[in-house]
Structure formats: structure tokens, C-alpha cells
Design brief:
- By secondary structure, the protein is α/β, with parallel strands linked by helices.
- The protein has 3 domains: 244 residues, Aminohydrolase, N-terminal nucleophile (Ntn) domain (Glutamine Phosphoribosylpyrophosphate, subunit 1, domain 1, 4-Layer Sandwich); 202 residues, Glucose-6-phosphate isomerase like protein, domain 1 (Rossmann fold, 3-Layer(aba) Sandwich), CATH 3.40.50; 148 residues, Glucose-6-phosphate isomerase like protein, domain 1 (Rossmann fold, 3-Layer(aba) Sandwich).
- 36% of the residues lie in helices and 23% in strands.
- Helix 7 packs parallel to helix 13, helix 7 runs antiparallel to helix 14 and helix 9 runs parallel beside helix 13.
- The protein is globular, with a radius of gyration of 25 Å.
- It binds 6-O-phosphono-alpha-D-glucopyranose.
- The site of 6-O-phosphono-alpha-D-glucopyranose has 16 residues, from helix 9.
- 6-O-phosphono-alpha-D-glucopyranose binds next to helix 9.
């Protein structure tokens, strides 16, 4: 949550910072601001609202060669202009942007209040910059030393960038718990970002900062990196594998729609080089060295949040069906605080698009302490979860910018399918014949998703009819129960319509009381998934005048006859249906949200990357 950008170089910081903020807006959009070193002073502009509002406030021709900027997802203090970043030190000579939470800010604030400090905002960040200046002024230390000394006293998570009016050609950045990347352009310019997106237009040479590191950037000099406990680090620069096109909408009205439409390619990319149906093989290089460990494990625990947790639930069905390994799926936030029973015989798989979700990361760290093997399924290369796990598999879905996750989910499910299949083949729990059939069908999935996308117009029409509904129910059974959860989450997130996902048979234990002629019920009723039982569930809904929108296998007649609307998906192995059934649910949520005039890519109160607990 919160995105930070910094620029220090020979050109103008303003467009770099504004473009950078736009690329990071998925991380939060409650307020935005920037601070520039202009002449002998710091100039701060900030505002409640989105980056475009901030941009509109800037005077034409504004220019500076050093600056920092921020887009906020509020944690401490309401999202107003005063609480917006950057925050200034008491003298107004230092400015900071911060992503994360300073947990002991109350203690520090108390100390500073006793020294006569006056705070303008309610934020933890303002406390931190006051604290840094307090050290800077009292101990005759340099700016990087003062930041380092302050951070040693800080409990919490942060990525920060600090600039000073007294040292215009410098910037100090540090990270602990929140990501930070430093780009180095060919001409020596530095561009700093919460992820690589703000950098990609200017350079592909980057340094992904490690935990507990602080970097001192000076114009015209190489960066100096140290650990918080003052050990020098020689920064290992890497080449970015990210294109600008991947960060643009490319003609689509929203990133979410672009990302839904990218799924044939993203699913294909997550299987590339891994699914080899011609050779009758699945190859997962990233975890090859740990396959025996996985086969001998007494159970697998999947940890994730939001959509990634739903992918874990699909994974549970896949692993238990194909590899016969017991699986538990946990929310990161619950797992970490539950004193879970974990030991060396367990494998914990962290599933995360961003690779930065604080609760998932904390759950994994806990499991590591207790001796479990950690594997990661992440989309963002070089992210914290990818780095802190023993091994893992990248999903290769490409950058996902829409806040509501779409292609990242199907890529996660694809990777989990490959893993389950690989383990099942090694263990002999899936017959060679079935394995070969599954491999052939999985190979077809990108094409089948392409076919599902052809229902877009039909889905748009259905959306129009139901966009005024106050509630939606989503039902599925077996492996498509998590898909029902995911469909409901998508609708909630972007349309603000209340929606619940339920196992279809559980409906009679409560939700059935809600059903009347105003309740649309989306039912995933694929041919092989307990079909007869689902037909009975649909009858129960019809008997109470509910409206049925069904997702059925191509050629279905029975459910179709009972439904008010039907969306067909191609026939495939039941274990692969989540990859198809998810897509119409994404489109349904998208069109309803667009019909209601919602900000689809930046739904209210949400952020894409949740780096706070
Ligand atoms: C946020 C996002 C969700 C996402 C969840 C987990 O809540 O809005 O779309 O599913 O975080 O994120 P992760 O990056 O760990 O998959």
C-alpha cells in the first residue's frame, strides 16, 4: 500500500515523479503529493484524491532535479491533504515519503512532544521525519547517518525516501518490510520506486533493495548501500525484464478488461517450458530440487490473502485429487497469529501476486522459523516472498495493474495444476493415461479461454439486466466452489454490490432465506461436477423465484432449461474447469461495475498490494 517514487538526476524530476505515481496508483489512491528541492528550499504540493488531481495543481513549467512523491492508501489518519505525504521536518528542510507502518510511533511521538515538537498531521510518517531531524540536528551526523540512527530505533515496516534542502543533490532511501527498487540510468540518474514500473521508461538497470538496507544516492556518484547495522553492501544490479507496453492499456478502456483478455496468453506463459505434452512431462525447474521433500511431506499448507487465498483453495482440490497429499489453506492473517502446529515435515506454499502481502509474508516467516520448507508462487519477480522462500515458481502472468486480480488468479491456478500433476505423476497417484489426457487438455486451455471470451457481449447484456441488484449469490461445488468465492469477491470489489460465494449444497443452511425474485444467483454447473446435485440446488432456487445465471458446459440442456441466463464454457476435465469458469465471472463483475459507473481499476478503499497487517 502506498507507492513512492524518487528522482535525482540531470533532468526534470516532475514528469518522472508524476508518471511514476500514475504507474503506482494501484497501490493506493487516497491522496498524492510531491516534494521538490527548488533553489534553497523544499516545495511541497499535495492533495486528497488521485494523482491526476495533484497533476492539475502543479504550475506549468515546474522543474527541479531532485524530488520525491507518494500515492497513499491511508493507515494512520483520514485521507485528507494534511495527512498526505510528503511530510516535512519541523525546520521544513527535510521531506519524507513512506510506505509502511511505524509501529512504535506513539513512543517516538511522546518523546518528541516532550521536546516541544508540534505535529500537523496524525501520521506515523511525520513522527519519523521529526525524529530523523532531531538526530540530524543534535548529533552533527550526516543525513544518511541520521536516517540510519533513527531507523535503528524504529519498529515497523517501511520503504522511505528522504531529501534535504541543505543537500540538494542527494537522497537517502531505506527499506524494511516494504519493497523498494533503485534504477540507475545510463547517464547516472537515479529513479527510485516501490516497484519497477516507474523506472522502466528510463532504465532497465535496477537494484532491488534488501531488507534492512539504506542507500545514499548522490548526483554523479555511484550509490552507497549499507545495512542498518552499518555493514557495507556491494549492490548487485539486475536487468529488468519489463516492457512499457505491458504497463499500458493498449486501447482497452480499463486495465482490468485488458488483463481479462490477456488470459489466453498469460495462462500460456505460465505453462511455457513447463508443460511438455509431447514428451508426456511436466517440468518445474524452480522446485525440482525439492520434489522429494514435497513427496515425503506429511501435508502442504497454502497461505495467501484475497484472490490468492482462493487460488489456494482450488489448489487444495487439485493436490488432493491428483497427488493425494493432504492440504490446508490458510489466510495469512489467521495463520500467523494462531500458534499453528508446523514442523520440518510440512511444506508451506505462499501464494501471492505481488509477493509483498504483509500477512502472507509474516505467515511464511513463522513457518520458516518452525522448520517448514517454504515455496512461493508469486507473480512479481524479485519480490519479498519470492526471495524469502526456499524455492518457488513464478506465474509469469506479466504486470497486473487493475486492483481486482484476474490474470494473476488464473496463472496461479495454472501453476498449482502443473504442480499437482507433476507430483501425482511422480507418486503414481494419477494414472499415466489420465496424466496424458490432462496434459493435452491443459495445453488447450489458452484456446478454450479464447472461446469463453467470445461470450463477452452476452455477459454484458446479462450485466445490464442485473446491475441494480442489491445482492448476488454465487454457488459452486467441488473445485468450482472457490471459483464461486472468487466470482463474488470480484463483484464486491469493483461494483460495491454485496455478493456471497457459497458451496451450492450449503445454501439450504442459511442463504436460501435470502432468495426471492430480486436475488440473482450465479451457479457454476459444469457437466461433471456433481451435476445432478447442482440441478437440485437450482430447482430449490427456482421454487423461490430466484433468478439463475448459470455457467454450464457446452451442449448442456438440463441446467439451461432451468436458468434465466446461461453462459457456456467449453468441455474439459473437471479439474481444469476453474480456469474457464472464472473468466465469465470476471467479465460479469466488470460489466456490472462499468454499468454502475464505478472506477473499475481503482475501486474505493482498496489497494492492490497490502503491505500492512
Ligand atoms: C489485495 C488485493 C487483492 C489480492 C490480495 C492479495 O487485497 O486487492 O486483489 O488478492 O491483496 O494480494 P497478493 O499480492 O498477495 O496476491
Amino acid at each position: 500500500m502506498c507507492g513512492i517514487v524518487g528522482y535525482l538526476g540531470a533532468g526534470n524530476a516532475v514528469p518522472v515523479l508524476i508518471n511514476g505515481l500514475k504507474r503506482l496508483e494501484y497501490r493506493g489512491y487516497d491522496s498524492a503529493g510531491l516534494a521538490l528541492v527548488t533553489g534553497e528550499a523544499l516545495q511541497v504540493t499535495k492533495n486528497k484524491g488521485k494523482v491526476a488531481d495533484l497533476e492539475a495543481m502543479l504550475p506549468p513549467g515546474l522543474s527541479a532535479s531532485t524530488g520525491i512523491a507518494h500515492t497513499r492508501w491511508a493507515t494512520h489518519g483520514e485521507p485528507n491533504t494534511v495527512n498526505a505525504h510528503p511530510h516535512l521536518s519541523p525546520s521544513g528542510r527535510l521531506a519524507i515519503v513512506h510506505n509502511g507502518i511505524i509501529e512504535n510511533y506513539n513512543v517516538l511521538k511522546e518523546y518528541l512532544l516532550q521536546k516541544g515538537h508540534v505535529f500537523r498531521s496524525e501520521t506515523d510518517t511525520e513522527v519519523l521525519i521529526h525524529f530523523i531531524e532531531d538526530i540530524y540536528r543534535s548529533s552533527a551526523s550526516s543525513l544518511p547517518e541520521a536516517v540510519q540512527m533513527a531507523l535503528r530505533r524504529v519498529v515497523g515496516a517501511y520503504a522511505i525516501a528522504v531529501i534535504s534542502a541543505d543537500e540538494p543533490g542527494t537522497m537517502v532511501v531505506a527499506r524494511k518490510g516494504s519493497p523498494l527498487v533503485i534504477g540507475v540510468a545510463a547517464n547516472g540518474d537515479f529513479i527510485v520506486g516501490s516497484d519497477a514500473a516507474p523506472l522502466v521508461e528510463y532504465t532497465k538497470t535496477v537494484y532491488y533493495m534488501d531488507e534492512n538496507e539504506i542507500a545514499y544516492l548522490q548526483r554523479g556518484k555511484p550509490m552507497e548501500v549499507r545495512t542498518l547495522d552499518d555493514r557495507p553492501v556491494s549492490p548487485k544490479l539486475t536487468e529488468l525484464d519489463l516492457s512499457i507496453e505491458a504497463l499500458e492499456k493498449e486501447g482497452y478502456p480499463h486495465f482490468m478488461l485488458k488483463e481479462i483478455y490477456e488470459q489466453p496468453r498469460s495462462v500460456h506463459d505460465s505453462m511455457r517450458g513447463r508443460l511438455l505434452p509431447g514428451k508426456g512431462m511436466v517440468k518445474l525447474g524452480g522446485i525440482q530440487a525439492y520434489e522429494n521433500h514435497l513427496l515425503e511431506s506429511r501435508r502442504i499448507i497454502m497461505v495467501g490473502c484475497g484472490t490468492s487465498w482462493h487460488a489456494g483453495l482450488v489448489g487444495e482440490y487439485l493436490f488432493e485429487e491428483l497427488a493425494r497429499i493432504p492440504v490446508e489453506v490458510e489466510y495469512g492473517s489467521e495463520f500467523r497469529y494462531r500458534n499453528p502446529i508446523i514442523g520440518p515435515g510440512d511444506v508451506v506454499i505462499g501464494i501471492s501476486q505481488s509477493g509483498e502481502t504483509a500477512d502472507t509474508l509474516a505467515g511464511l516467516r513463522l513457518a520458516k522459523e518452525k522448520g517448514a520448507l517454504l515455496l512461493g508462487i508469486c507473480n512479481v519477480v524479485g519480490s519479498s516472498i519470492a526471495r524469502e522462500t526456499h524455492a518457488g515458481i513464478y506465474t509469469h502472468a506479466g504486470p497486473e495493474i487493475g486492483v481486482a486480480s484476474t490474470k494473476a488468479f488464473t496463472a496461479q491456478v495454472t501453476v498449482l495444476t502443473l504442480m499437482a500433476l507433476r507430483l501425482g505423476m511422480l507418486k503414481g497417484t494419477v494414472s499415466e493415461q489420465r496424466a496424458r489426457a490432462l496434459m493435452r487438455e491443459l495445453d488447450q486451455v489458452p484456446e478454450l479461454i479464447e472461446k469463453v471470451l467470445q461470450s463477452d457481449l452476452l455477459i454484458q447484456q446479462i450485466a445490464r439486466q442485473y446491475q441494480q441488484a442489491k445482492n448476488f449469490l454465487y454457488l459452486g461445488r467441488g473445485i468450482n466452489f472457490p471459483v464461486a468465492l472468487e466470482g463474488a469477491l470480484k463483484l464486491k470489489e469493483i461494483s460495491y454490490i454485496h455478493a456471497e460465494g457459497y458451496p451450492a449444497a450449503e445454501m439450504k443452511h442459511g442463504p436460501i432465506a435470502l432468495i426471492d425474485e430480486n436475488m440473482p444467483v450465479v451457479v457454476i454447473a459444469t457437466r461433471k461436477g456433481n451435476y445432478d446435485k447442482i440441478v437440485s440446488n437450482i430447482m430449490e432456487i427456482k421454487a423461490r423465484n430466484g433468478k439463475i445465471i448459470s455457467i454450464v458446459s457446452e451442449g448442456d440442456t438440463q441446467v439451461k432449461a432451468l436458468s434465466d441466463h446461461t453462459i457456456e464454457i467449453p468441455q474439459t476435465d473437471e479439474m481444469l474447469t476453474p480456469l474457464l469458469a472464472t473468466v465469465p465471472l470476471q467479465l460479469l463483475a466488470y460489466h456490472i461495475a462499468v454499468g454502475l459507473g464505478r472506477d473499475v481499476d481503482k475501486p474505493r478503499n482498496l489497494a492492490k498490494s497490502v503491505t500492512v497487517e
